[in-house]
Amino acid sequence: MGFTWAVNSRDYQVTPWSNDPVENRPGEAILIRCRKTGRMASPFAALCSDPGAIHEARHGLGFSRFRSWSTWVELDAVQTLAAEGPAKLTRLRVTNRGREPLDLTCLAYAELVLGNDRSRTAPVIRTRAEGDALIARNAWSTEFLGRAAGLACDRPATGHLTARAAVLGQGDLRRPDALAGGWPGDTTDTGGDPCLALRSDLTVNAGETAEVVFALADAPEAALPDLLRTATQAGAVDRALEQEASEWDAVLGTLQVQTLDPKLDLLVNTWLPYQALACRVRARSAFYQASGAFGFRDQLQDTSALMLHDPGLCRRQILNAAARQFSEGDVLHWWLPASGAGVRTTISDDVVWLGHITERYVRLTGDRAILDEPVSFIAGPALEPGQHDAFLTPERSDEIAPLYEHCARALDLAVARTGPHGLSLILGGDWNDGMNRVGEKGKGESIWLGWFLCATIDAFAPLAEARQDTARATVWRAHRHSVAEALDSTGWDGGWYRRGYFDDGSPLGSVESEECRIDSIVQSWAAISGAGRADRAGPAVDAALTWLMDEGSQTLKLFTPPFENTDQEPGYIKSYPPGVRENGGQYTHAASWMVYALGRMGRGADAHRLFDLLNPVSHAETQAEAERYRVEPYVTAADVYGEGSKAGRGGWTWYTGSAGWFYRAAVEGILGIVPEGGDRLRIEPALPPEWPGFSATITLAGRTRRIEVTRDGATLDGAGSGPDGTFAFQA
User: N or C: which end of the chain has fewer CB within 10 A?
Assistant: First the structure.
């Protein structure tokens, strides 16, 4: 059943988020009981007390379906969101598999939080019955004042309770006393331990199917009763499913590809953009993290990956991120949208992403007007010397500047943060937040950030020159030249590029290193940035594939060996067991960069081979593989274990930035499809040699067009490219 939230997954949870992978105790339940035999069942495996029941779970676009089969009953539950408003619908269909009629009692149950901490909110939640529905509100909520939650059914309610103890008694959610024993009597007294529990009865004749629909909603209190009534009307679930299908068809229909790899097609056409948009951008939450926050670098990358689908989304996110920048140039690493509170840090790469993504947006859409959009800065206490971060609620500054100035001021700060080798300072961590102690004294350096900064300056400096900001552009280009020289001289380790330098000047990611001898992202970005020497970038990528790709566990490790015994203190990354997450496991975000790099280098065979290795579908093609992987085989996992007995096991899924980058790796890196200037399309694929080509449909300027790629070239609606190698399109 998961958990339910409204408005913000961190700050306003309707039902509890457990984050307990061991017990996984749900805070919601739907159960049935046969009044004659006392047998109980649930479509949800975690709630079923019948050890002989068989369960199946299926997840689609905007809905989930749960089925169970017992000797006496078959259950089929579909969950989706109401078309009319913020209501979670559960349609339970009950099929009688016996020879006698079934007289059943159905129970829908939801523990209440109505905030972010049940221990604080429980005593002040007030409940009431309104017709056959139950209504609850947090009487002391300030941030979400006026909201209320409700539970309703499309059948007459035959009982209601609002105290958890009254429902469970001495039992648990598998066999609550109120259902397994006798109903204690209707009441809206919470006893300081609130829940919503509705009982409804139905009879199912032998061989027949009956259904009941429950709606759990949260909305402004005045609107909630009408929402509950509408959400439980006949046909509400069908309307909701039809609306979800229509909306997702419109989004995902933007690009549909047909290649010789059906596993790639499945991810590109459906699951990767769905994961990036539904989970990363809209929900900002999953089972593993009830965040609700915006990540500065995170959502910039996520929305950038969806440029084809919704360029306006990327535009809004760029402006949203820029509005979380201090006048000094640094930014909130993440923030909560309602309060604006967030974390000011010394993480060093944040300040480069704004210019990087803004330039990409302008280049792909042709929308230069965004550079002149006025955006306020924020103001707050500066970090003290040696202070890594601080949680604060900044004030809105009186200073307003065009978006261009925000990007430029951030790049100015990135340029100023230069270390003793002429490389970018790593400070509180670069892209790898876990390396937060490599440069904690202000002298450690990041070679990866050097590549990233070079690429961003190469891209953004022409925008500065077009605006006659030549002084800045000159400083940036000079810095780019000096950083490139430093990367070539002090960054090269002889067979690959080093990861960086500790505060004491000792190298990180060197053949001389006992741990973290070679790191993936430094090698991939030497190629992606275009700043690495061709005679070195290629061998560096080859070294990464040799040392880091593990065919046995189907992983590409972030680095090897993992941190464990070294005297050097890289940061909290060392607290992870060897081979787990960033500490020498596969971090799929980084692995996607390697696929992207191989595609940019024109190495289609290697790019596709690695993409297929990383593809979650490839991790569950047999039962043995599925048992090892143990997570969803249709969305990317943030990490996959890389060492020991658990090598090949998936870790954190859904809420990961790897979805957007894995999508870009396939679409841009392998298939080579990139919009340009808002009215053109560039198609420069890097295909494996066994592919004769591929086809695709793409919606541009309101029209669906046909892409055909062969070994002889590409066409858009049957026409070839122009002299500049792009395909022009008009509305």
Answer: C
Which residues, at least 6 apart from 177, have a Cβ–Cβ distance to it below 8 Å? 167, 168, 169, 170, 171, 184
Instruction: Output Rg (C-alpha) for the chain, integer angstroms.
Output: 28
CB atoms within 10 A of CB 139: 12
The alpha helices in 188-290, defined as continuous H runs, are 224-231, 236-252, 262-266, 272-274
pLDDT of residue 568: 87
Angle between the 403-416 and 447-466 helix axes, to the nearest 10 degrees? 140
- Residue 24 pLDDT grade (very low, low, confident, very high; cuts 50, 70, 90): confident
pTM of whole model > 0.90? yes
What does the pLDDT read at residue 258?
98
Whole-number Å distance between alpha carbons of 270 and 248: 9
For residue 533, how many other CB atoms are within 10 A of its CB?
A: 14
Sequential DSSP letters for 626-681 = HHHH-S-TTS-BSEE--SGGGTT-B-SBSS-THHHHHHHIIIIIIS-EEEETTTEE
Spatial CB neighbours of 651, under 8 Å, sequence gap ≥ 6? 580, 581, 585, 631, 637, 638, 639, 640, 641
Bridge partners of 176, per DSSP, are none
pLDDT digits (tens, 9 = 90+) for 144-175: 889 999 999 999 999 999 999 999 998 889 99
**Domains of the chain with bracketed CATH:** 28-249 (2.70.98.40), 253-283+659-731 (2.60.420)
**Whether pLDDT at 731 is above 80:** no
- pLDDT-based confidence at residue 2 (cuts at 50, 70, 90): confident
Residue 88: name the closest of 197, 218, 249, 186 by CA. Answer: 218
DSSP state of 269: I
Question: Among 217, 183, 187, which Cα is nearest to 200's?
Answer: 183
Handedness of CA 288, 291, 296, 299 (dihedral sign): positive
CA dihedral over 281, 287, 289, 293, signed as positive or negative: positive
* Tens-digit pLDDT profile for residues 272-323: 999 999 999 999 988 778 889 999 999 999 999 999 999 999 999 999 999 9
Beta strands 73-81 and 87-96, pairing class: antiparallel
Spatial separation of the C-alpha atoms in residues 278 and 66, rounded to whole Å: 20
Q: How many other C-beta atoms lie within 10 A of the C-beta of residue 668?
A: 21
Tally DSSP H helices, then E strands, for the chain.
19, 36
